[in-house]
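User: Can you help me understand a structure? I only have the sequence.
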Amino acid sequence: FGHPAPNEAPHDLPHRFAHEAYYRGCGNDSGGGMCLHESIEPWLPELANRRVLKSMSSQPDETVPALRAITVRDLLTFRMGFGSVMAMPDTYPIQKLIPEYRIGGDGPPRPAQAPGTEEWLQKLRSLPWMAQPGEQWMHRISCAFRKNRALDSVLLLQSSDEPAGFV
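Assistant: Let's start by predicting it. Here is the structure, written out as tokens:
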């Protein structure tokens, strides 16, 4: 305890990101960084202007606008409005698209079938959210490529000066 690991494991990234979001520039004079209440849109514009299903049983084109942007806190607390559906397969129409789009969260990781970061973000962008941002906890999704990257670690990468191979 108290000593950083020489090489961070993928599961350490959300923990590291929470600390970075808290300490980097929010509420101090150093500038930069992000606060927990800030929108993720400056770093992940692909997720701006989200549409949300009217209900979980709605067809993917039956949506309403998101009431607000996704915040850093929403992402870190698994309340961004999208995640793994904890129901039997084919219970809800959205479940049919998740494996088809290969975005993860629909079973065990399949690295050989996983898209790259940009393609993953575009596929995620094309789907409606299942809940309004901040309103419902949902198990996070991750794209099973490059060390099981999840959206919080993609945000960390986009908002930092870390080299692209970091995550």
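Now, to help you interpret it: The CA atoms of residues 110 and 144 lie 6 Å apart. Helices lie at 13-23, 72-76, 94-101, 117-126, 151-159. Let me know which part you'd like to focus on.
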